[in-house]
Amino acid sequence: MTMPAAATERGAALWPPEAGTASGGPTRRLRCCDASACRNAGGIALRQALLAARTAAGLGEGALAIQAVGCLRLCGRGPLVAADGPGGSRLWGGLPLPLADQLVAVVVMGAAELHSGSAAAIAPLPGSAVSARQPQPGQGPWPGIVAGSESEPAPVQGAVPGAGSALGPEPEPGSSPSLVDPLSPYRLDLNHPFFRLQKSVVLERCGLVDPDSLDDALAQGAYAQLRRCVRQLAPEAVRAVVRRSGLRGRGGAGYPTGLKWDTVALQPAGPRQVVANGDEGDPGAFMDRTVLESDPHRLLEGLAIAAWAVEALHGTVYLRAEYPLAIARLRRALEQVEARGGFGPAFTGTSWPLRLELRVGAGAYVCGEETALLQSIEGRRGTPRPRPPYPAQRGLGGVPTLINNVETLAAIPAILREGGEWYAGLGSTPCAGTKVFSLSGAVVNTGVVEVPMGTPLRTVVETMGCGVVGGLPVKAVQTGGPSGGCIPERHLDTPLTYEAMAALGSILGSGGMVVLGPATSMPALARFFMEFCVQESCGKCLPCRAGTVQLAALLDRVVAGRAEVADLERLEELAAMVKATSLCGLGQSAPNPLLSTLRHFRAEYEAACEPGGAGVGAHGVAQTPSPPTFPPHHQPASPQDETGAQEPPAARREP
Amino acid sequence: MSVLTLTLNGSPVAVPAGSSLLEACRAAGVDLPTLCHLEGLSPVGACRLCLVELEGSGRPLAACVSEAAEGMVIRTDTPALRLHRRMGVELFFAEGNHLCAICVANGACELQDVAVAVGMDHSRFPYRHPLRPVDASHPLFSLDHNRCILCTRCLRACDELEGAHVWDVAERGSHCRIVAGLDQPWGEVEACTSCGQCVDACPTGALFHRDDTPGARRVQRGRAALLQQARQGHGWRNQGEGGP
Hints:
The complex is a heterodimer. By secondary structure, chain A is an alpha/beta fold. Chain A is built from 26 helices and 14 strands. In chain A, a hairpin with a 5-residue loop joins strand 10 (434-441) and strand 11 (447-452). Chain A is globular and about 75 Å long. The relative contact order of chain A is 0.10. Chain B contains six helices and ten strands. Chain B is globular, with a radius of gyration of 19 Å.
């Protein structure tokens, strides 16, 4: 099975090498990000304005295609619009609606024509600098990632090795482009490290493919590997490729995927199940959402290949209810497959009777834990059960069940296309391949990045993310959500591998990365995550149900400045107990944010215990994580509880 | 029947294959505190008091849900385990409203027994004093949520022995509570057969006979095991030799 040339070439590129020509469509097109973040920023209205502007200009689909696509990565600058034309690709972010007609004009006519011929139509555009700005990605003379921000200071001063040189050439002498091109303040530099250092494997079609169109996905290579597997490769051969790739579970545990597939496949003969875990619940994590909203057929292909490899005939995608757009797109993708007769007839030309279905969660974080997830799929209360037996031995309906994270499965088609060795060569020993991270918090460039495993944390946070807003120093990076910890600035050169993160008391986790500025109080951050665990504990086992409540109460005392040194000892003792004795991963990792901040920022806790100390407010830091750190849709789903009302009187403390 | 040998607190022990670690310990005369476990019901591993250390494993195992394997080296009484058990019992006392002096189960309470066993004389953690109701709608029994430790033994007894599945758990985390039927008053649940097996299974005074006075609770904790044996092994006492 040979791949269309366009699809294979694209493997590593974030942007189409020869834009617009890959699928034989019009040579000029606008790709409008239609994923959640850009939608929330007004992406739909902008796309409609662009369509109206195209109509007003008397143009049709042939002259300029305007397409809804998935994530264009830099979520914090949405709504994002990418333009492909003969000169390459350009990207704009946060464009106001009134500028839609100018954008259409610029893209259709090209900058040179715009300047010489039609300047009157797009007045006021005096000056001669526009013609100097050829639509070459990366040629923009703009500091930072935003075009036309010359008047602003660079986002990070001094703290970003290499970033300064990556910002593009200096402006030409005498030119002042930002005064003449109304679009230039919104132009984003595609040669910025944020884009340039990305290695798109899982996200290779994100931002290029229309997430609602099966035909578009097929034209860009979707299901080609499934067809190849079913027609040419025995299940064992597929598993061998995955084994050689060194792929490890992207949900956070990092279990070798090939080993897991083998474990399921080698169970005694009988039915099997495959499950995609899309219950991405960590605050600050939106990698799986990006995949699902941008390229849903990719997950279906990965899951179908997994089903082939372990000889399952039924698969389930479990999605959290808080992702309505992802649910809608995946549902539509499944309907499109069904409408063509299912996976076997439609894509493989065989009668392979694989059936996939979608199950939507009910808002419990703990259902991302695999045994709780299985309970939830079966319609039971989503509580974990002790392992063994592992789901690979006894899972859904009592049969061997393969459970993989969405991102893990989304990597499978590319691995099969390019080979296991290719994927293994992308990362660093012992972590192969690439990993998607969602960068948020106090960072300048908020968005989704996919980088090779082993990339230093500093590269992602400072070079790509441009550090903290306002040029402030990075205080720490929170990785792994409520199960993870905080990596302090002095450890930012740590490579992003499962082992290196664990050695620092955090975890690589599913890929959520929240950058913390100097104003963040670490005890308050630990309190936030402990409260998250209090809310999201299923209540089955005692240490997680009652221990997290007591830990949160102790952290309340620290945050309020009412703590004593004995409270810190109690915190550590209880945290160790909850970690050691809880039933599932939620409770076992619930103390991690507390323990890692205690380890790296102990002084802040001790300051809160000083007599007369006014707690974390005393040294001029915020009482809670700053609001932008956690977008509203990443808050725990449950309503605020009444634990505050249950706060015991402080006088009840025992000696 | 094949036999496994393991080392328990330094002594070799032989147990039938398929035994849980808890069964192995109890067969060897090593007592482990438990609250959610009741012989005759399926194990859930929720109270985390029966934790044991397995050599070569980084994390303690709940003995009730771990199967014994050949050659295991198990310790049940290390300083860390003692500390964790005691903290666990403290957390149980702090999360509910356990007032022994006015409790029907005073003197016949497994939570009390466990506290004595682990040497817990006070809780270092502040009492949460949750506001919890009492359900006295059933003609024969009552449910005092203040004394409930969420062991789910009532739930499993009703489901596995009586087959009525009257009980379930509602809500999450510290808000968890036992509910009857579709979160109805117990007395209105038609599925309840009033068999009283949940009351017998309750380790504390959360479920009790209406007319019990403080300290007057009578329990038949062996009934679950007896019924299970009867159902599965057909070992009715009034059949075969011996008789009742």
